[in-house]
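Q: Got one fold?
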Amino acid sequence: MILFTTRTCPKCEVVKKHISDWSNVTVMDIGTPDGMAEYIMNDIRSREVPVLVDADIVQIGAQPIIEYLKKKGIAK
């Protein structure tokens, strides 16, 4: 599971604060070449972050991501 963020994204920080189990979550900053390459390879078409990719499921925005992670038992 990949959480796409940027260094200056306040909503991204909110999502990160909710995550209680980081074992299956990788954070990628799309402000870096590696992060942007991964973002493009996952065919993300959103200009908004945070974006969470879990296999074929894509969640966009802080609240949908937090709700999804809570259902998976990864967020508090």
Remarks:
- Helices lie at 10-18, 33-41, 62-71.
- The CA atoms of residues 7 and 29 lie 7 Å apart.
